[in-house]
Design a protein that fits this description.
heterotrimer, A alpha+beta (716), B alpha+beta (280), C alpha+beta (153), B: 280 residues, alpha+beta, Uridine Diphospho-n-acetylenolpyruvylglucosamine Reductase, domain 3, Enolase-like, domain 1, three-stranded parallel beta sheet, 36% helix, C: DNA polymerase, domain 1, 5 strands
Chain lengths: 716, 280, 153
């Protein structure tokens, strides 16, 4: 059995040896280097571009602009509103204008410094409030990108039934993905004259489609291969380098390498949406929640990217993992001239969790109820109705996660001055919201007797390579040397969808399981399980029938009603409880996270050690979100101004897995990538309140802000 | 990627100052953790003179009532040096927390002082230890108190032809001494506030109190008014409060009101109380 | 151009480097040691960590000329796919590798720590790693891998 085992990662040996080839490590004969010339104004029209001095540099190969785009100069994950290269309108500082190609990086970047642009500047729109009231429209459809709602029950009745009502406004900051490997790729023409892109990416088929549209050629004339990818977290879902590389290869017919500097990644890549959340909760005096009213306003920046997804998820998950009869959620994303906000681990739910977990703790406090008990009282369970009135039919282990944490909660003791304990719970829909998001996989018997798994799934560090192989091995009843993985190549695999929304174990895992099932049937008929050799089976079958078996899975979901948001947007959900102990030093405002007990219902732990790694990494990101990280457009340039947690910021962590099997998941598994992060900041904020009786409504609650809050409290 | 420049490696102090005298637009390179970052961000120099392997610049030895520290001694070396740990503990503690382990292996005390960031963490402990700096050039040498050496944020009295070579720190025996930084994360962060202290006390009486605060003022700050008040006084609540007030007044006097003071001054107040009451 | 001679991963090597050349680029381009990663270029992330005389340094802020006469080690020194060092095996065993980008730097810092300290405490390990960022793991399994690594000699 491999499912359920701490199997060693299949990609670890190359990575520890330093031999794993990331995109910037790749090299080809006659390779050129490309970089992007970007706008330094947030809102403008391009009057004139002067590239003469740049073009005269020895070693300069070509400067490409929007005019050199043979196909469509628009891309976007959901709505195609973003130019690859600006053509007149500039909508954010950092927007690409030109691709500069030269013999090496030094010449390319020097050429960029010599390019002169005349801009007609326009007053920038820098907040959702401005966007809402401004007569200036950043896009044809106005400044409101998206408005999604959830309406359940009768909100006035709900508040009418409440004995206590708590109402607050919460706000969160832009967050950078800060993957250690910046965006990078290499493009080259192959022997058939097709464009090949190898890049650091979270998806390959989507990138191929966008590149094909950019060049105005059929998808079959493009090949995208995932290079070893050094982290994604949602920041490598959108087209990053792929379009620029493809354009350069198309025009120069030579290999071209590209990588973003860290400053470039901070400047121009998408960010977590900063959200403004107005939250009103009503509860009866026994702690039962009666009503939740939430208004979410987000700054989606210059282009749509995944703004619509975040908008929708925020509305759908606004109540938190609780059964609430009356819900009124309103979520809006506005275009501004800030940089685009996009997909970032949790798609808006880490921000919402900060709000809903603070709210329920405050209700508990007003009613003198234990924070654990009020959560147990209201938590979603099997048979519960969610905010979209979906009945949870299976795999709803939140109560189990609360019970796992319960002994630690009951035994908590404030050992020193400034000690505090806080809880954070969450639920999170696995897979894309209320739309089809299938995955395909293929299992093939090769001539040498090995089984090849062909999958488009992108491994970004979370362990999908290993997990999918474990599923395959158990489904076929084989050992590791029998199987090999072929992944992340559009030539040899079918679309598995993106590595995002915590979906690959669940959806591609199921697709692999389905494909393996068909292979297994075939092998059974051919006598493999009676001892026949695979090479012989191949020889006997070759020519008679195809030896590739397809797997497909699309989670059963429904669309959501436009007026009420009601429906079944996900086939399964992750659930979790984090209990965090902090120590606040009141003299300085320093908050140290001492210990976290993190319990997650994962359906089935295919590889527990990988899951623990995900949860620990998620906790680290949650600490950054709560206490350390803050991206300020125009100010934050690199890691010297953007603090990720170091090893010294990390607590002791205990991960407690709950397995409430998901019937539609492979061996009962669902997903954990985003759940790992989602409740952490919320639990820290609640622990701070417990420690020093200070309420936090703004993130990050860094050392300076916490000291100011402490001082204000003293003065009162 | 760095802009192009020429470099020379100096094997002795004499070579270093000769290069400085003869080469136009030259600058000294020790660890590189400040200089090379500035150059990557646009600062230009024609010549870099590498002084990191000059033996005379790497030392920490006792000389009478002082400790001699070579300017190219790294923060790592200072953090573990037994002489400094025994007789200038606040300096060892500060050095042991500057940047990250790699930065401490590369960065030097001389570079820290010559860069003269208001947040440079060598400054408060060296102020507490009445540091005297020796500055050499092809014309000879001069000695200057640290407080005179730094004239403002990122400004020192060094001309483009001079090299800081030695730091002489007063040995302090019988003091309770320490350094505390406040930063945005637990390690590897610019100090938002740094306090160095050396306190000699007997029973409940302050005999000699030395306090220096970093990252609050445009130039080096030693809380001399507070120190004078405390000298010889009993450790009592009113005395401590008065000293804290004098210290904060001194900071305000030097810096004017700064937006960051809304959190920095309360932190200094609370840390000083703890330090003076031996609760840190 | 400056001729330099130094010990690289246990062997004496020579090269010609430019005055302004960074050790990071020398190792990656002239010696093909792609394990040394550039992730920020200003000494704020640790991905470019190499050992110089067995002590961790940031190669992105080290001039190539500085290593003349010194000993330089990259992760290739520890082992390769054919035969891994026990420290590397411990990393694999403990799940200390996710995306892998920070891993070479982490291994070198761990190696240096174990050279100086046969049985480091958890606190000492965390401190040693505090100059290397990781966005994936949260560091816990890296610390466990180092705790569980056998002594170097």
């Amino acid at each position: 059995m491999f499912v359920g085992r701490d199997l060693e990662r299949v990609d670890a040996a190359a990575k520890v040896a330093g031999r794993a080839a990331f995109a910037y490590d790749l090299k080809k004969e006659e390779m050129l280097f490309a970089c992007v010339f970007r706008s330094d104004r947030p809102h403008a029209r391009i009057r004139q571009i002067d590239t003469r001095e740049a073009l005269s540099l020895p070693g300069l190969a070509r400067i490409l602009s929007a005019k050199d785009i043979p196909g469509k100069n628009l891309f976007g994950a959901i709505r195609k509103d973003q130019p690859f290269l600006a053509d007149g309108a500039i909508r954010f500082r950092g927007e690409p204008l030109l691709v500069v190609v030269a013999k090496n990086e030094e010449v390319a970047r020097r050429a960029c410094a010599l390019i002169r642009v005349d801009y007609d500047e326009i007053a920038p729109i820098l907040s959702p409030a401005d966007a809402e009231s401004s007569p200036l429209h950043l896009h044809k459809n106005g400044n409101l990108l998206s408005n999604r709602v959830v309406r359940k029950g009768d909100i006035d009745k709900g508040f009418g039934e409440a004995d206590v009502i708590v109402e607050h406004t919460y706000s969160t900051q832009w967050i950078d993905h800060a993957f250690l490997e910046t965006e990078a790729g290499i493009g080259y023409p192959d022997e058939q004259g097709r464009v090949v892109i190898e890049s650091s990416t979270q998806n390959v088929h989507y990138k191929r489609a966008e590149v094909a549209r950019l060049l105005g050629i059929p998808e079959e004339r493009v090949r995208v291969i995932q290079a070893t990818t050094g982290g994604g977290f949602g920041g490598k879902l959108d087209v990053t380098v792929e379009g620029f590389l493809a354009l350069a290869v198309h025009h120069l017919q030579r290999p071209v390498l590209m990588r973003y500097t860290r400053e470039e990644s901070f400047l121009a890549n998408t960010k977590r949406h900063p959200l403004h959340i107005e939250y009103k909760t009503g509860a009866r005096k026994d702690g039962t929640l009666t009503a939740v009213k939430v208004k979410v306003i987000g700054d989606t920046g210059a282009y749509a990217s995944y703004g619509e997804t975040v908008c929708l998820r925020a509305a759908v998950h606004a109540t938190g993992p609780y059964e609430v009869p009356h819900v009124h959620a309103d979520s809006r994303m506005f275009y501004t001239n800030n940089l685009p906000s996009g997909a970032m681990r949790g798609f808006g739910i880490p921000q919402l969790a900060f709000a809903h977990e603070s709210q329920i703790d405050e209700i508990a406090s007003l009613l003198s109820l234990d924070p654990l008990e009020i959560r147990m009282k209201n938590c979603l369970k099997k048979g519960s109705l969610t905010a979209t009135s979906q009945v949870l039919s299976a795999s709803a282990g939140l109560l189990e996660t609360l019970k796992k944490v319960e002994p630690f909660w009951r035994q908590r003791r404030k050992k020193e001055e400034g000690s505090g304990f806080g809880l954070g719970c969450m639920y999170y829909g696995i897979g894309n919201t209320a739309v089809p998001n299938p995955a395909r996989a293929q299992v093939e018997l090769a001539e040498d007797g090995r089984i090849i798994l062909h999958t488009g799934v992108c491994e970004i560090g979370q362990g999908s390579d290993t997990v999918l192989l474990q599923i395959l091995l158990d489904a076929l009843g084989m050992q590791p040397p029998n199987v090999i993985l072929d992944r992340g190549d559009t030539d040899t695999s079918q679309d598995a969808g993106s590595t995002s929304a915590s979906r690959q174990t669940y959806i591609s895992g199921r697709a692999v399981y389905e494909a393996a099932g068909k292979m297994r049937e075939f092998l059974e008929r051919r006598g493999y399980y009676q001892g026949k050799d695979l090479r012989e089976i191949y020889r006997e079958a070759e020519g008679q029938q195809p030896l590739r078996f397809d797997g497909f899975f699309d989670p059963p979901t429904t669309g959501l009603d436009r007026e009420t948001g009601q429906g079944a947007p996900y086939a399964t959900y992750g659930f979790a409880t984090h209990m965090t102990e902090v120590r606040v030093e009141e003299a300085t405002g320093a908050c140290r996270v001492k210990r976290v007990h993190a319990s997650h219902d994962v359906g089935k732990g295919i590889n527990p050690i990988l899951i623990k790694g995900q949860v620990q990494g998620g906790i680290s990101m949650g600490i950054g979100f709560a206490l350390l990280e803050e991206f300020i457009p125009g100010e934050t340039t690199s890691f010297d101004g953007y603090y990720l947690p170091t090893s010294m910021d990390m607590p002791d962590i205990e991960v407690l897995l709950v397995e409430d099997p998901e019937p539609t998941g492979p061996y009962g598994a669902k997903g954990v990538g985003e759940p790992a992060l989602i409740p952490q900041a919320a639990s820290i904020v609640n622990a701070i309140r417990d420690a020093v009786n200070v309420k936090v409504y703004e993130l990050p609650c860094d050392v300076e802000r916490l000291k100011i809050l402490l001082e204000r409290k003293e003065k009162r | 990627m760095l802009p192009r420049f020429s470099s020379r490696k100096a094997k002795t102090k004499r070579e270093a100052v000769t290069y400085l005298a003869e080469l136009e637009q030259s600058v000294l390179l020790a660890g590189g953790t400040d200089l090379l970052v500035r150059m990557k961000r646009g600062e230009g120099h024609r010549y870099l003179i590498d002084i990191s392997s000059i033996p005379e610049l790497h030392l920490a030895v006792a000389e009478g009532s002082r400790i001699l520290i070579g300017a190219a001694t790294t923060h790592s070396q200072i953090g573990i040096d037994p002489l400094i740990r025994n007789s200038a503990r606040s300096l060892a503690e500060a050095a042991a927390g500057i940047g990250s382990p790699q930065v401490r292996n590369m960065g030097t005390i001389g570079g820290n002082l010559a860069n003269a960031s208001p947040c440079a963490e060598s400054i408060p402990p060296l102020l507490v230890h009445d540091a005297r700096l020796t500055i050499e050039s092809s014309r000879g040498e001069r000695v200057e108190e640290l407080e005179q050496f730094i004239t403002g944020p990122y400004r020192t009295t060094l001309t483009g032809k001079e090299m800081l070579s030695t730091i002489r720190a007063a040995r302090l025996e019988g003091y309770r001494e320490g350094y505390r930084r406040v930063a945005k994360r637990a390690a590897w962060a610019v100090s938002r506030l740094g306090i160095a202290w050396a306190i000699k006390e007997a029973e409940d009486r302050f005999l000699d109190v030395r306090l220096a605060i970093g990252s609050c003022t445009p130039g080096p700050f030693r809380a001399r008014n507070a120190e004078a008040l405390l000298k010889g006084r009993r450790r009592e609540r009113e005395v401590v409060e008065e000293a804290v007030k004098l210290c904060l007044d001194g900071i305000r006097h030097m810096s004017g009101e700064r937006p960051s003071f809304i959190y920095k001054l309360p932190v200094i107040r609370d840390l000083l109380r703890a330090i003076l009451n031996n609760r840190l | 151009m400056n001729p330099i001679a130094f010990t690289l991963n246990g062997k004496v090597v020579t090269s010609e480097v430019e005055d302004h050349e960074l050790l990071l680029d020398t190792l990656r381009e002239r010696f093909g040691l792609k394990s040394v990663k550039e992730a920020c270029s200003i000494g704020e992330c640790g991905a470019c960590t190499v050992l110089i005389d067995d002590e961790p340094h940031y190669a992105c802020l080290t001039l190539a000329t500085k290593v003349e006469g010194h000993d330089v080690k990259t992760v290739e020194y520890l082992g390769d796919k054919g035969k891994l060092h026990p420290l590397q095996e411990s990393f694999i065993r403990h799940g200390a590798v996710q995306c892998g980008y920070c891993t070479p730097g982490m291994l070198l810092v761990a190696y240096n720590l174990l050279l100086k300290n046969r049985q480091p405490t958890e606190e000492q390990i965390r401190e040693a790693l505090s100059g290397n960022l990781c966005r994936c793991t949260g560091y816990i399994q890296i610390v466990e891998a180092i705790q569980d690594a056998p002594p170097l000699f």
